[in-house]
Amino acid sequence: MIKGQIRRKTAAVLLAAAMALTAAACSSGSEGGASGDGGTGTKTDPNKPKDPVTLVIKHTTYETFDQDLAPAIKKYQEKNPHVTVKVEMVKPKQGENIITANTALFASGEQVDILRVSPNVGAGEYAARGWVVPLDEYVKKSGVDITRYYPALQNRGVYAGKRYALPWIHSQFMIFYNKDLFQKYGIPEPKLNWTYEDMRSAGRKLVENNVHAFESSLPNMLHIVGGAWGGSTFNPAGSQMTLDSQGALKGYEFFRDMIVKDGLIPGKVTQAKGMPGGPNMTKGTAGMSFTWLKMKQFDEAGLNYGVVPSPVGPGKQQGYGALDGIALSSTSKNKEEAWNLIKFLAYDNEGQLEQIKQKITIPAFPNEKEQIAAWERTIGKKDVTDAILYQVEKTNEEGVGMMNNMPGTEVAYEGFITWLGQNLFADNFDLYAQVPAKVKEFNAQWTELQKEAEKQMKK
Asked: Where is the signal peptide (predicted)?
């Protein structure tokens, strides 16, 4: 997923114990606020050289993230020569997930100043475990205007009435396609409003010519198929899944048929045709990829590619956004310095431009023409940028994507999607009976996790 680790999680009672352990290992808050004197009330000499500071950013995304972020970090260090920034990955071990990996991190006592909040998890999880502190006072005193962000992004990082993260690393899941293969086999290039039937037809044509329709990332589409058929993902409060609706079930049925009967990802159909495994866009063995924005990887490979939004289904949902957050660690001993870096990366124009040039984020501010222009120049393909900005607008209108802030989201929602991907294509799978039962089961577990989180927040 945006680089997600999605696995079945432990029972609520064990997670509750882990919450308590982590909260005990972390300091309690953001005393000192965002004042220039650190809350001491004493004045400092502006001409006095600042003491050297090392800030550590921890993340659970992908191994080369530090390289992608390096130009922005370099720019910040040039402006703040007393600051050294390290970007380090917290890599879950076999059988671990983002939550358990971060729990071990804080229990270890390692330095953590800033956390990249995974879109799979949500800021509420980080807050309930005591890993991060509220940013409201920092935001207020620094003059950060949250309304600059797209409306659908503004609440990312808010839980229980407090802001625990700023929106950061704005992305979209879209469909990339190999233009050369589409032209070779006479497949019409997708348009902005193409449908699931159009996608299915293109996939069939590729398979007929012994080319895999999709790379292995297609099951990520299970996140949006339910909504595309008219079934919403969550209730209005974002606290329960509603993926047992008739609309969602019809969407899953279509998706299963597309995989099982048409062979749009490797399986019995492609095996019967003798097609090799390991479909790969850059190697020409797959025609499409449903994935986060991978322009940088495809450009480096010299691929002649196009981009199109997620297909239109019978329902209204088309967009599928992904948005991380950036948060201030409760254990940081340099909270003021850490906040300054957070603001630079997630809000300041200079920091945003450096990340846009690295193709790791879409402009998150709709009215910042300089950022959008820089991004369009960086991508260099008008059809690509038009398609991405179109889906950004759709996502903003629909308010959908991997942006839930509730504790337990990874356990419940991502756990359900993982279970669905593992079982949906089985011969004996009773979709209309088993999916509603599993949604009910995960929702019950989610409710218990949210209750436990509320108890932890009161402590």
From this structure: 1-25
**CATH T-level fold of 12-171+322-389:** D-Maltodextrin-Binding Protein; domain 2 (3.40.190)
Residues near 251 by Cβ (< 8 Å), separated by ≥ 6? 225, 226, 227, 228, 229, 230, 231, 313, 315
Q: How far is CA 331 from CA 17, 26, 99, in A?
A: 20, 6, 17
CATH class of 174-319: alpha beta
Distance (Å, whole) CA 126 – CA 135: 13
Q: What is the pLDDT of residues 298-310, one digit of tens each?
A: 999 999 999 999 8
Q: How far apart are CA 435 and CA 442, in angstroms?
A: 11
Domain map (residue ranges) of the chain: 12-171+322-389, 174-319
Looking at residue 310, what DSSP letter applies? P
**pTM (two decimals):** 0.84
User: Model confidence over 62-79: pLDDT tens digits?
Assistant: 899 999 999 999 999 999
d(C-alpha 107, C-alpha 101), whole Å? 10
